[in-house]
Amino acid sequence: MDGQTGLDRRTFFKGAGLVGASLAVPSLLAGCGGEGAGATGAQKLAFWWNPSVESADQMTAWMDGVIKEFAAANKGTTVESTTQPSEQLASNFRTACQSRSGPDLQHEYSGPYTMQFVWEKCIAPLDGTLDAEEMKHVLPPQALDIYKFAGKTWALPWYNAPIPLMYNKALFRKAGLDPEKAPATMDEMMAAAAALRKAGVTPWGYGVKNLTGIGNFSGMFNTQNLDNPRELLPVVLGEQRYTDGRFSEWLTWVKEMVDAKVFNPDVTSLEYADAMNMFLAGKCAFAITSSLTKFQKALGDDLGVMAPPKRGTGSLAGKVHFNSHPLFITAFAEHKELAAKFLAYLHRPEALNGMYKATGFFPADDRFDSGTMNSDQDKQLWELQSNQSTIGYQNFWPSKMDRENVFLAVQAVFSGTAPAKAAADVEKRLDGWRKASANELKNFKDWSGS
Q1: 121 and 115 in contact (C-beta within 8 Å)?
Q2: Does a structural domain hold residue 31?
Q3: Of 209, 210, 295, 422, which one's alpha carbon is 20 to 30 angstroms from that of 274?
Q4: How far apart are the C-alpha atoms of 240 and 251, rounded to whole Å?
Q5: This prediction's pTM
Q6: Band of pLDDT at residue 82, cut at 50, 70 and 90
Q7: Closest Cα partner for 45 from 415, 344, 398?
Q8: How far apart are CA 292 and CA 299, in angstroms?
Q9: CB 322 within 8 A of CB 161
């Protein structure tokens, strides 16, 4: 048990629904330089990763510090760190795999976003390269199962990204709302939005231009009629249709919120990051995030954290969704052992605690000390993830059918398309994917059934 939080770190996910390098930045890790010095000789490790839209500066500074310490601890070793744009993380790696050149160690989004590259023979198994003891520390333990296939483990979860809604307590007070009582249901959200608009405040700041960040939005609603996110699998496999209300009714809820003027009127003209800047500037009362850090610095005690408003009838309604994003060693890596060593280095307690301190991300490792949390918002989010969360739908949905299907449906509804038409289009594109991707469909079925 964690003496400060009262949470068992091996089982706190009981509500989850799971059965060029810049080395000049000062280190953010304490007392870990020099360990294992001179162990590897002159080698260069290429590391590609995405630092997240919400905390890019903080996470990049932290990573630069870790790299500096790793290089000092392994004389002659250099790590070439290359950050990738969110929307190009997968496509750039696919190009690298096709040319068999690029990163030795790669960061990718969770579930099928990573497993697609196993099936494309772009990833090397961790078995025999990474110490098996490292895999025993994954938090939650079941998250590692997502990256198992054909008897091998292909990726190691790095951090968990719960996706809450933030709200501005000062704007709540301006609208005569209780700043300590966030809306728990959709009806309460509608009522709060009406009060905010009356006070001259835009309720929920959001943007769907260029399709970035829509997974964070859709994940708040699209499993609310389900009891387990795995219930999406029959839809993927063609055994049930997406037009069934259990799966697509949430698009109607989005339309209801649009009609009720819950969102800024220029949603289709703004990108995901633009909406977060609106929130930082105090121009809207709600916004989505996967990292609280910079919002805490800007709003202080006026930053509120909440679960998505409950609307559905399933046991997943009103739960915060999260994804466990991994790192993996590439099949074409020149220095696989060095990649494994750096991967393990990122999971040292000092590194885990340093990442949390710099970014607010919760490491997917039980060696992270949750007692280091020093803000009420982080403690509240930790509690939500511990007791009111679910693994995100994206872990059970083909990656190609996310940005090229569900994201398009959300954008379409915000643009005025009827929800029923948007749902029918999702089903049509799914059917096209199944017909054109027989091998991928079989791999998906084999993997998801394991």
Answers
A1: no
A2: no
A3: 422
A4: 18
A5: 0.84
A6: very high
A7: 344
A8: 10
A9: yes
Query: 79: how many CB neighbours lie within 10 A of its CB?
Result: 25
Give SS3 for 140. Answer: coil
Residues 101 and 238 both lie in one domain: no
What pLDDT, on a 0 to 100 scale, did the predictor assign at position 317? 98
Residues spanned by the domain of 190: 163-320+396-438
Cross-strand bridge partners of residue 149: 152
**Tens of pLDDT along 258-298?**
999 999 999 999 999 999 999 999 999 999 998 898 899 99
CB atoms within 10 A of CB 299: 20
Q: Are 181 and 219 within one domain? A: yes
Q: How far apart are CA 441 and CA 33, in angstroms?
A: 46
**Amino acid at residue number 376:** D
Considering its fold, how many domains does the chain have in total? 2
Instruction: Name, in order, each residue with C-beta under 8 angstroms of 119's C-beta and a sequence gap of 6 or more.
Output: 439, 440, 443
Q: How far is CA 120 from CA 94, 180, 247, 432, 439, in A?
A: 9, 49, 29, 20, 10
Task: Provide the token pair at 235.
Answer: 């839809």
CB 137 within 8 A of CB 366: yes
Helix ranges (H only) for 100-185 are 112-119, 132-135, 169-174
With CA atoms as reference, report the closest residue to 387 among 2, 12, 10.
12
Quick: pLDDT tens for 138-191: 998 889 999 999 999 999 999 998 999 999 999 999 999 999 999 999 999 999
For residues 251 and 257, give the distance between their C-alpha atoms in angstroms, rounded to a whole number.
Answer: 10
Look at residue 79 and tell me if it is in a domain: yes
